[in-house]
Specification:
12 helices
C-alpha cells in the first residue's frame, strides 16, 4: 500500500473519530461511507472510482450541505493515488487508464455545486474521441489550439488544475482540516499542487497549431 493511500485511509478515519457525536449525527452520511467502503473493497481501480463518483451524486440534493462537502473532500482524496501512480507512465498509457474514468470526474462540477458540465464520456466514445470533443468544445480555450497528437497532455493539465482548485475549495470549508488539527489534509493539497505544476510544464512545451496563439494562454485559463 502506497504512502498516499495510507495517509488517506488514516485521514478519512480521523474525520469520524474527531467529530463530536452531536455533529457527526448530522453530517455523517451512511450512504457515502458505504459507497467509499465498496470502492476500497473493489480494489480502488479507476473504473471503480468512476462508479463511486456516480453513486455520490445523490449528495447534491441533500438538505444538509455539509454532507456534500464531506463527500467532495473524500472523492478528491481518493482520486489522488490513482493520478499519482500514473506519473511514470507514458501519456498514452495514462490516457488509457484515466481519460474515461478519473479525468471526467475531476473535470466535473464539485459535489457541492448544482451546475452541469458537458464533460462526461459518451456511450461508445473512446479516449481519443473524448479528448478531441473536449478540445473542440468545452475546453477549446485551453487545448483547442494544441496539435491533435498532443491534446491529451493539455487536457491532463486542465484536469489537474481543476482537481487542485476543487481540493483547495473543499479544504476551505472543512473545519477539521486545518494545519493544526489534521495537517495531513494539507499534504494532500500540496500533492495536487505538485501534480498540477508538473502537468502544466509539460503542456506548455507541446506544439500548437499555427496561428493559434501563445502556449502561455493555457497557464492563464481555468476550466
Amino acid at each position: 500500500m502506497s504512502r498516499a493511500v495510507i495517509l488517506i485511509v488514516m485521514l478519512l478515519a480521523a474525520c469520524h473519530r474527531q467529530e463530536p457525536a452531536v455533529v457527526r449525527a448530522h453530517t455523517e452520511n451512511t450512504e457515502t461511507r458505504d459507497h467509499v467502503q465498496s470502492y476500497v473493497t473493489s480494489g480502488r481501480t479507476p473504473a471503480a472510482f468512476a462508479t463511486l463518483a456516480v453513486e455520490l451524486e445523490s449528495v447534491r440534493h441533500d438538505t444538509d450541505p455539509r454532507r456534500a462537502e464531506d463527500a467532495e473532500l473524500r472523492l478528491l482524496a481518493l482520486a489522488l493515488p490513482l493520478v499519482e501512480e500514473t506519473r511514470s507512465l507514458t501519456i498514452d498509457a495514462e490516457v488509457e487508464r484515466l481519460a474515461l474514468t478519473v479525468w471526467p470526474v475531476l473535470l466535473g462540477e464539485p459535489l457541492t455545486g448544482h451546475g452541469v458540465r458537458d464533460v462526461a464520456p459518451r456511450t461508445d466514445e473512446d479516449a481519443s474521441a473524448y479528448i478531441a470533443r473536449l478540445c473542440g468544445g468545452v475546453l477549446s480555450a485551453q487545448c483547442g489550439g494544441i496539435a491533435p497528437d498532443h491534446q491529451a497532455i493539455a487536457v491532463r493539465a486542465v484536469v489537474l488544475q481543476r482537481a487542485e482548485q476543487r481540493m483547495r475549495d473543499a479544504l476551505a470549508t472543512c473545519l477539521m482540516c486545518g494545519s493544526s488539527t489534521e495537517p495531513g489534509w494539507r499534504e494532500l493539497e500540496w500533492k495536487w499542487e505538485s501534480l498540477e505544476r508538473a502537468a502544466l510544464r509539460a503542456a506548455l512545451e507541446v506544439p500548437r497549431v499555427a496561428g493559434s496563439g501563445s502556449a502561455v494562454a493555457l497557464a492563464a485559463q481555468r476550466p
